[in-house]
Write a structure and sequence with these properties.
This protein is of the alpha/beta class and about 325 residues long. The protein contains ten helices and 13 strands. Strand 4, helix 6 and strand 5 form a beta-alpha-beta unit. Helix 9 packs parallel to helix 10. It is globular and about 50 Å long.
Length: about 325
């Protein structure tokens, strides 16, 4: 073999056997140093777009009109996605129609916030087709929960804050039950959301921590494992909520997150609504709080239960992507934004 050929062979082998852990650490460091961008707080005259990126709006125009009136009462203007009332079996229009509305709202420099009419199912079918370049030029608040978790996670991964809060259809609930939801949503949009103090829960694990708040619906978090919208939970505080699942489903999803390393370097866990949990046959044998703590037993970060956020009428707004302080003591849980 010629000396020149031998040199190139050895060089190629050295490149192919480079230490991958160093490359991964470098990428991790870049991720951790990414600056989080907060959309501008809303001001009088700003425009809020209402769209339906997932499930069909079953109640028609009633909740939409209520939302328009609420937005206008805050001194803002409301505009609707062109396809918001479309119907395609389970979905609020065909994929290209829902994608067109969300792309329009993200791209328009006039629109300062995007409020999802409802969740249901469907966001995960279009998220990979969304172009966020226009959004990056004019960041705006994205609002919703449940199925909208997918969009939250994508935007948070890109380095932007989002608003996990009530959706338009929730305005159909009794006004007394959603009073705090509306109040906190407005506070999030106008940058006056400060601190939540909640009575202590007997299932809590005490402690204090600080980290960027991320998360969402447990089913959606699990369904994104291995995808581009999977979350990086290192030094983050993870929020989870769920509705209508069996306990063994919840355990399986948490075990999946655990196996994927979600809790290895997590700074804390906040548990929102765990409602309408179905009964196992045979019985699971413990409460959903005990189930969660059994999964999280190997870790030492604080865990807070009973946070009023999720599918209950009282759905307090949370700012995903923001660095928060979590304090869980014997007397209360305190979340500071």
């Amino acid at each position: 073999m010629h000396l020149k050929s031998l040199f190139f062979l050895l060089f190629s082998l050295s490149c192919s056997h480079s230490n991958p852990s160093k490359m991964i650490k470098k990428n991790q460091k870049n991720t951790e140093l990414k600056k989080i961008i907060s959309p501008q707080k809303l001001q009088a005259g700003d425009t809020v777009a209402i769209i339906a990126p997932a499930g069909i709006i079953k109640t028609g125009k009633k909740s939409i009109k209520t939302a328009q009136s609420l937005i206008e009462s805050w001194g803002l203007a409301a505009v609707l996605g062109a396809n918001i009332f479309e119907e395609n079996n389970h979905f609020a229009g065909k994929e290209e129609q829902r994608l067109k509305d969300i792309q329009w709202a993200l791209d328009s420099p006039k629109i300062k916030a995007i409020w999802c009419a409802r969740g249901g199912y469907g966001s995960i079918r279009i998220v990979d087709k969304i172009n966020f370049e226009g959004f990056k030029k004019n960041p705006k608040w994205f609002i919703g929960y449940s199925d909208i978790t997918v969009i939250h996670n994508q935007l948070n991964n890109l380095g932007y804050e989002t608003l996990h809060g009530m959706m338009v259809v929730n305005l159909e609930e009794d006004s007394k039950n959603i009073k705090n939801s509306i109040k906190s949503l407005k506070a999030g949009l106008f940058d006056s959301l400060d601190t939540y103090e909640i009575d202590s829960n007997k299932a809590n694990r005490f402690g204090k921590s600080k980290g960027i708040l991320i998360g969402g619906n447990l089913t959606l978090l699990t369904s994104q494992l291995g995808s581009s919208t999977q979350l990086d939970t290192r030094n983050k505080i993870l929020f989870i909520e769920e509705i209508g699942e069996y306990k063994y489903h919840i355990d399986r999803m948490l075990q999946s997150l655990k196996r994927a390393g979600y809790f290895n370097h997590c700074a804390g866990v906040i548990v929102g609504d765990m409602m309408n949990i179905k009964s196992n046959i045979p019985a699971w044998g413990c409460s959903v709080e005990e189930l969660i703590m059994n999964v999280l037993e190997p870790y030492d970060f604080p865990v807070a239960f009973g946070i009023p956020a999720g599918h209950m009428p009282e759905n307090q707004a949370l700012i995903f992507g923001r660095s928060i302080e979590l304090s869980v003591t014997e007397s209360k849980t305190k979340i500071t934004f």
